[in-house]
Amino acid sequence: MKLENTQAQMRKGVLEYCILSILKRDDAYVAEILESLKAAKLIVVEGTIYPLLTRLKNADLLEYRWEESTGGPPRKYYALTQEGETFLEALSQTWNDLQFAVKNITEYKTPNHE
Amino acid sequence: MNKTINVSLGKQFFHIDEEAFIVLKNYLDAIKRYLINEEGRDEILADVEARIAELFSEKLQSEREVVQVHEVERVIKIMGQPSDYKVEQEDDTYTNTQSETYSNRQNTQQSTGKKFYRDEEKNLLGGVCAGLAHNFGIDILWMRILWMVLFFLSYGTFTILYVVLWIVVPAARTTAQKLAMMGEPINISNIEKKVKENAEKATNYAKNFDYEKAAQNGKSTVTRFVEQLTEILSKVANVLVKIIGFILVFIAGLSLVGMFISFISFGSISFLNIADFNLSNEGPFVFEAPVWLQMLTFFCIAATPVYFLFLAGLKIINHKLKLFKLRTVVILLALWFLAIAYVSFLGIKKGISSNSIGEIVEIQELPMQTSDTLSIKMIPNLTFAESIYRSSSNQIKYDSSTEEDILVGTSIYFAVQPTTDSIPKIRVSKKSTGSNNKEGRLNASQIDYQFKLNKNELLLDSYFTSDISLKDEDLKLNIILYLPENMHFKTDKYVSTFEDYKYHKFVNLNVNSNDVYQIQNTELICTTCTKNEPKTENHE
C-alpha cells in the first residue's frame, strides 16, 4: 500500500468536486481554474487537470465554448451542464456526509484535544 | 550560435532554440505515451499545448524572442512530470477491466474462453510454449520448464509433439486472434487499445529503422551479408545459451530435490532414532556427531553450490529475473563456510583421536616334539565371513550364540621366524589405534583372538573379534611363529593369504599344502618342493 496512491485517490475525487464547484460560480478557462486550485493548494503541478477536464467533458458534465481573448488565441471557456449541476449537487451531499463522518470518527478517536 | 526552429504551439507561433525544442518534444511525447489509453488523448494534448503556449507568451517580451531551454524547463516544472498527467493509479486499471468484463457480459455473442494460438511475438522457437502459457494463464517460463522436463522424461519424444503443434496450431496474427489468445473479449475498445499499442511500437520501430536503413545503404552487399550472418549466429547462440540454461536448471533442480529427499529421510530417521546408523561404518557418517547433523552439514556443503547453479540457470533463461539478493547470498555463503569449517573440525578431531597406537603382546610356548612336522592351519569362521581373506576394515556381524552384535576383523599378519630355543613359540601382538597410547592399549586388550595346538597341528583363527565400540579404530594382529632350526613344518593354503611380507625371507610359502618346509641357517628351505632349492632365491 503506497501512501502516494491513497493520497492520489483521495485528491482525485475531491479535485473533480472542486473543479465543478469552481465552475458553478462562474464559467472559467483553464488558467482561471488552475489559479483557484493552486491558491487552495489542492494541486502542485498543472498537468493533472487536463485529463480530468477532458473526462468531465466527455461525461457531459462540462461543456466548453471558444472565446476571443485580448492578446492571444481564443480560449476554451468551460461551463457546467445541466447534468453537471445535478452531479455536483449529489457530490455536495456526499461531501457533507463524508465530512461529518470523518470529523466524527477522527475527533472521537482523539478526545484529549477537546 | 544556436539554430532556432519555428513551431506552432496551441495555434501560436514561436521561435524556439533547437535544444529547447528537443526537450519540449520529448516532454510532449512522454505525455502522449502516458495517456496512451486515455479516451480524449488528442484533445488533452491540444489543451496542454495551449497552456504551454500561454505560459511561454507570459514570459516573452516580444514576438521575436527565442524560447530557451531554461524557459522550457520552467514550464515543465509548472506542468509537472508526465506521470502527473495520469490521475489514476493502478487501482483504476482494476475498475477498467471490471467495466470491460461487465460490458462484455452484456455483449453475449462474444466468447470469453481463450483460444489456443501460437504467440510469435514471445517465441523462442515456434511460440508453442508461449501460446500454451497464455492458454493456461501461467508464466511462459514455467511452461518452458515443464516442456523441458517432459522432453527429458520422454527421452525426446516430446520434440515430435512440439513440432506437430508448431505445424497444426495457427499463429495469432490478427488483433482479434491475439485478443482471443489472451482471453480478452473481442470488442471495439480492446481492439482499439491493441492497435494503438502496436501503432506506437511501429512508429518507434520505423523511426529507428529509417536511420538503420539510411546507414545500410552506404554499405556493401558483403558487409550486409556478414551482418545478417552475425545476427543469425547470435540468435542461434542465444537459443543455445537458453538451452544450456534449461539443462542447468533441470539438472540442478533434480539434484536439489534428490539431496533434499535424502536429507529429509536419513536425517529424520536418525533424529527420531528410528534406526541407528552409527552401527554401520559404511557411508559418509564416519564422524562422532549425530547423523542428522552430519547430514545437514553435508547437505549444506553440497546443496549451496547447486542452488547457485540453479539460480544461474534461471538467470540465463530470463535476464530480467532478479534472483540474487545480497542478503540471501551472504547468508547462504556463510552457512556454506560454516558447514565446511564444521566438517574440517570433525575431520581433525577424528584424525587426532586415532593417531596413537597401543600394542599388547602375548607369547606362548607350544609344547611339542621338534622332531614332528608342525602343521599350520588357518581356521575360518563361516558365520562371520563367507571367504577367507585379509581386510583392514572392521565389520559388524551378528553373533547368534551371544545374540549380540560383534566386531570382526581379519587384519592378521602371519610370519615364521627362526629361534635358537629348543621349543617353538608363538607371539601374538594386538594393536589398536586410540587418542593416546594408554587408550590404544586398552582398545588392543579388547581384541579377542584364539588359537590352539592339537598334537602337532597349530590351528589359527583367521579372524579376531572385538567389542563394536572399536569399530572406528584400526585393529591389527601380528602373529609370529618362532620355530627351532631344522624343524619341519607345513602350511595349509590359507596361511599364505595372511603372510606378513615384512619378513620376506620367510614368506612365499607354497600354496601346495603337501610341501614341507624347514629353517636351516636362518633360511627357509622347502624340503619337498620339486626344484628343491631355497625359496628365498626368488627374492634375491
TrEMBL record, chain A:
InterPro entries: Metal_resp_DNA-bind_regulator, Tscrpt_reg_PadR_N, WH-like_DNA-bd_sf, WH_DNA-bd_sf
Domain spans labelled Transcription regulator PadR N-terminal: 19-89
Top-level lineage group: Bacteria
Pfam families: PadR (PF03551)
SUPFAM superfamilies (alphabetical): Winged helix' DNA-binding domain (SSF46785)
UniProt-recorded name of the protein: PadR family transcriptional regulator
Organism per entry: Psychroflexus planctonicus
UniProtKB/TrEMBL annotation, chain B:
Bias (Polar residues): 94-113
Membrane protein topology class: Single-pass membrane protein
Region (Disordered): 87-113
Entry's localization field: Cell membrane
One Pfam family from the record: LiaI-LiaF-TM_PspC
Alphabetical keyword list: Cell membrane, Membrane, Transmembrane, Transmembrane helix
Domain Phage shock protein PspC N-terminal per the UniProt entry, residue ranges: 114-171
Domain annotation PspC-related transmembrane region: ranges: 212-349
Domain PspC-related ToastRack: 401-531
Top-level taxon of the source organism: Bacteria
Transmembrane domains' residue ranges: 124-143, 149-172, 243-271, 291-314, 326-348
Name assigned to this protein: Phage shock protein C (PspC) family protein
Organism: Psychroflexus planctonicus
